[in-house]
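Dear U.,

For the methods section draft, I wanted the exact inputs and outputs in one place so we can describe them consistently. I've listed the two proteins in the order they'll appear in the manuscript figures. Please don't edit the token lines directly; just add comments below if something needs changing.

First protein:
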Amino acid sequence: MQRFTPALRGALFTISTLFGGLAHGLLAGSLTFEIIPGSSVDNVQLGHAAIAAVPALIGFLAGGAVWGVMMGRIAGEHNSRRMMWAGMLGFGPISIILAVGLGIAEQSIVAKFASVGQPIHRVFTLLFVPSAFLIAGISSWAIGKGLRQSHLAWRLSWQVGLTAGITFLVINLIMEAAGWVVGAPGAAERATMLTVLAVGNVGAALIGGGYLGWILSKWGGLSNSNLNIH
């Protein structure tokens, strides 16, 4: 059991900090929007949405910062400020870029693939599996850079990225086989896309974070051994 402890810590730290920060940020943003005079979900104004987005963004980035510190501790790194910036800048920008980019391009991409006979659930897979890979890969790369280890950073980027991407793909296909098909009749009524996306992201965070924690603990152990030798 002892050898799996770092993996469990990595998984729990990842899900609690990244999703916890996101959940708190969305809650704070929603409450902010509701107390703004004249705001309404039926007539969203750009200024009101921008104000409400500030606490949401703060929670999002704060979650990444805490995640970086926790991952650093698994690796035996005590420079909390450096790891805080690594976690925040590694996770935040790529997640925001992908969320905004996919939100803007989603309709045109779906229409493009529909014109060549590709169903919506295949487009969903094509878009979000690489997104899971990129978010996990770039975030893990930043952790390696925070540890001042370029070789480790590149190793983490593709290994953790692949782990998260494959996990998302497997969950997506399992849910699809169980009847949760994005774009199918009645899918909108039970929020199929949001459900599959949420479950897939949680799974990718748990498995990817667990693998990251395991690799970091091994690296930290080897690093400490070398220091003791010298």
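Second protein (the one for the lower panel):
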Amino acid sequence: MTLDLFIILGASFIALIVGGLTGIFGIGGGFLTTPALMIFLDIPGPIAVGTGIAMMCFTSSFAIYKRRGSDTINFKLAFILAIASSIGVIVGMYFLEKLKHVQPLVIMGKEHIAVQYILLLVFVFLLLGIAIIMMIDFLAGKDKTNPHIGWFSKIPFPPYIQLKFLHVPTLPLIPVLLLGTIIGILTGFLGIGGGVILLPALIYMIGQQVPKAAGTSLMIVWFSTLVGVTGHLRSGNVSIFLLIAMLAGGLIGTHYGTVIGLKMHDHKLRFYFSFVVAATVLIVLFKIINITFYN
């Protein structure tokens, strides 16, 4: 893949924005990185996935360092979810490799590269659901004065784990492991760090407050992207020069994003996050409509 000045500058700018989101919300930013590389810079899907994961591995490492001493990372929960997520990453990468060899899709009389089209469709449905859930939560008027009680705490399914930082500290282990596995599959398949799913999952399913969910999410993202980048390097899905261009902007964005994120109110974080996800849905949906009906 040839890199010109437009791609280098464009990749750096995308990484700057994504790095900011990584610092603010504790997400890897892959839900934005992968489709942005595909849509705006015409980067092939597998390369966008692999290079995006590599970039997230660096930016999440930096964001964790910036959060040191903030008491926003629960290492016990992060470790449990990361183990399950690592297994899921391997499964997700397997599906992506299979999809690379699928015959072109014929839609509206035109051929489309299967891996590109399917990745974009999955992004739309996944992110739309997350945006709707978080917007409904915001409109319901919940704030930090009301304790978060996770959905999992209502499931009577042993064995259990104890997480003392939660309002209801007893959680069933199996649903937690399944959550981690699903997040890992999406990381390997879509090139997302999992944070875009982890943040709402830690808030609504586990019951964490948003600042702590953001920090814990970052640690899990780091684990899953570390596994993912190793596999994608072996598969040839990482462009080193593209990665270098992205790191130039990504680390700067992560620095300032973390400063902002540690100062923001719990309720506002959820509100702004829902708009970021919704904006990404619109961008991807526009691309799908454009390639389906006009290109």
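Candidate sentences for the figure legend, describing the second protein: The chain is about 70% helix and 5% strand. The first helix runs from residue 5 to 25.

Thanks,
Y.
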